[in-house]
Amino acid sequence: MATNEQESKSLWHHAWDSLMSDRTTVIAMSIVLIYSVVALLSSTGLIVSDWSKEVGPSYAPPSSEFLFGLDIFGRSVFAKTVKATEIAMSVGLVTGILTVLIGVTLGSIAGYYGGKVDEVLVWFYTTVSSIPGIMLLISIAFIVGKGLLAVYLSLGLTSWTGLFRLIRGEFIRHKDREYVQAATAIGGGDFRKIFKHILPNVFHIVIINFSLQFQFAIKSEVILSYLGLGVQGVPSWGTMINDAKLELARGNWWQLAAATAAMMVVVLAFNILGDSLRDALDPKLKGK
Amino acid sequence: MSLTSYVLRRLFYVIPVILGVCFLIFIIFSVVSPDPTISMLGKHATKAQVLELREALGLNKPLYIQYFDIVKSAFTFDFGRSWSTKQEIFEMIKQGAIPSMTITFPAFFLSVLLSVSISLFVAFYRGTFLDKGVVFVCVALMSISSLVYILVGQWFFAFKLGLFEISGYEEGFPDVVPYVLLPIIIIIILSVGPDVRFYRTVMLDEIYQDYVRTARSKGLSERKIMFKHVLKNAMVSIITYVVLRIPFLILGSLLIESFFGIPGLGGMTLKAVNSSDFPVIKAMAVLSGIATILFNVITDVLYVVVDPRVKLN
Fold it and tell me: What average pLDDT does range A205-209 have in this prediction?
């Protein structure tokens, strides 16, 4: 007979166990963790604070002295690549949070209230998603001007549509369930029902989406840099890859290689993590 | 509800969305965007010059008229003239559409064919090492920036090996091939990753359905089940996914066209962005918005036609 002390495992507990039992997922999580620590250390100035220092001749190729070679100003490509982690992780984090805030707020309101509110929000959603992402991205970056803020805002304000659709759908499915009716019966208000009762039940979608948004933002930063709308003054993988336009013709491949490799590893990790999270958290996929 | 009335109702719903797209474009370019005359005239322009240019470009018109102009252009396709080339924008778009589609259409057909074949193949061998390997390669391909494919492709295969033209464009069938081959290959590589993943999921969803179990219990071969049953049912999702991509084919690819010097719509848009050529950017945004909306309707209608289970509501 089972004792009462033995608590049954929650969804999150199960999910954590299933994530931890997969070796690839653990590696992906470790990579994300390492990148986060590097970004944190670099933003506090503990490492690579001297990335802009000239350490040797312009465009010195990779050697035992200069691990990843040097750039046009004789700066270490390795230090720049590490420093750029900071921008990449902050772009992923900030646009991920913006996407979640907008998508979850609008999606839960539309799904929960329905009726006219829903119609207006769905109209807004259809409108925004009708303009191709890249056009919208360019337009917003254009208004805000160059720089990190433009990258944050243009990515954050354009990427919420997918999450909106998912969250709205889930709220429509959930709002008439018994547990919500029970909350109504004991006098729970709309605000309480949305955030305290329904949202935790659909939060796995938010987490999966956040992980995928993170890597999408890191990749998009490259495109914005190419369009001349990216980060200024500090190195980013986007500007480094973009610099390679002129460098490759002279055979200087190391800056492109370093930035691409650094980016690929973390984007791949987030992609794998997103997939594993979906497998672990989405009950519909259980047993497949 | 009959199909005709369903189509009419869907088309009716298009109008508020088109008005919305126009409103968004209006807000972006006529209300909140920085004054384009400053970047056109430079920092040292006098106040009189700025005012004169604003008048000439129609920026002094009342806001509601500026909005009305955008809405009108969405229905008449009269986008006015480009600020930088002074050409009729509609003519520019007609000219640019052909080079864009010369690249996107072959790339599109080949990549759909390739992705569907690969996903059928991995769905057949689901759960094996092969399946996992292909999915991993797809994700890995997706993890590299599209700019890197373009840069490396252009540098290595065109510049170093001389297999293709580095950049440029030539009209007429045999002449155009060396210019568009590499862009087409790059687009295929870029789309294979996400496409195979999507089609594979669609097919795996079907494989666990009851009708597949029935087919199996009838003693049909796994191959017959894949091609006759699963593929047919997966087609509904595949068609909707594919049709929604068509507007983007006409739009062209911004990055690829500008890198390979192809005089298409993507390159044109990018040039307009760099020179603050608002009418051209606005025209492209309006057009691509309308194309997306219409193809959404087409998808919905196709859905109903292809799949009798979908109810008209």
Answer: 91
For residue B248, what is the nearest residue in chain A, using CA coordinates? A132
H or E segment to which residue A144 belongs: helix A133-144
Distance CA B305, CA B2 (A): 11
Domains, chain B: 3-76 (no CATH), 89-276 (1.10.3720.10)
**Chain B nearest C-alpha distance from A63 (Å):** 22
Q: Which domains does chain A have, with CATH numbers?
A: 2-285 (1.10.3720.10)
Residues in chain B within 8 Å Cβ distance of A271 = 139, 142-143
Whole-angstrom distance, CA of residue A147 vs CA of residue A87? 11
Q: Could you give the C-alpha distances from B305 to B230, B294, B300, in angstroms and in order?
A: 19, 17, 9
CB nearest to A227's CB, from B142, B208, B273: B273
Residues in chain B: 313
Q: What pTM value is reported for the model?
A: 0.88
**Adjacent-strand bridge partners of A75:** A54
Mean pLDDT of the region A44-60: 85
Q: B93-145 pLDDT, tens per residue?
A: 999 999 999 999 999 999 999 999 999 999 989 889 999 999 999 999 999 99
What is the C-alpha to C-alpha distance for residues B4 and A128, in angstroms, rounded to an integer? Answer: 28
Chain B nearest-CA distance from A126, in A, is 7
Q: What is the pLDDT of residues B250-264, one digit of tens each?
A: 777 888 998 899 999
Any A CB within 8 A of B15 CB: no
Give tens-digit pLDDT for A149-175.
989 998 999 999 999 999 999 999 999
The first and second tokens of residue A111, run together, are 């799904």
Which of B147, B149, B275 should one mutate to test binding to chain A, selecting the residue with the greatest count of A CBs within 10 A?
B147
Cβ-Cβ contacts under 8 Å for A279 (sequence gap 6 or more): A18, A285
Chain A partners of B293 at a C-beta cutoff of 8 Å?
Answer: 126, 130
Q: Which residues of A165-181 are buried (b: 16+ CB within 10 A; e: fewer)?
A: bbbbebbeebbeeeebe
